[in-house]
Amino acid sequence: QVQLVESGGGLVQSGESLILSCEASGFMVENWAMSWVRQAPGKGLEWVSGINGGRADIKNYAESVKGRFTTSTDNHANTLYLQMNALKPEDTGTYYCARDGLTPTTPRDYRGQGTQVTVSA
Fold first, then answer.
1. What is the pLDDT of residues 3-33, one digit of tens each?
2. Does residue 100 contact residue 109 with C-beta atoms inside 8 Å?
3. Which of 45, 59, 84, 88 shows a CA-CA span of 20 to 30 A to 117?
4. pLDDT for residue 55
5. Where are the extended beta strands (E) located within 9-121?
6. How far apart are CA 74 and CA 81, in angstroms?
7. What are the CA-CA distances from residue 97 to residues 27, 77, 79 (Å)?
8. Beta strand pairing status for 55-61 and 3-7?
9. Where are the alpha helices (DSSP H) in 1-121?
10. What is the per-residue burial (b if ≥16 Cβ within 10 Å, else e) of 19-51?
């Protein structure tokens, strides 16, 4: 049974940092691409980043987060991470990890329940 559990969200001020974690079970992240997507209040899902689990040097980022966010995996812990630096109020939203989704147009088949990130000005 595939499960994805996000953690690490919270309330921070503009310019601060957060690290999100996504613990996977039921499959090995090293065998899949993994991604982060987010949903701002009242808006649709936005793809944020993707990483090739087997080739962790292959990463893609949305233009809006490039240079500020870094995604990584720990294959021993079977966990996906999103390091978020220089956070902005427009980064506020619910962040979900998903299986697959290396690029914005690649389908994702499973998604976690999400973790809330709120950035105050």
1. 999 999 999 999 999 999 999 999 999 999 9
2. yes
3. 59
4. 85
5. 10-13, 18-25, 33-39, 45-52, 55-61, 69-74, 79-84, 93-100, 108-111, 115-120
6. 8
7. 14, 15, 10
8. unpaired
9. none
10. ebbbbbeebebbebbbbbbbeeeeeeeebbbbb
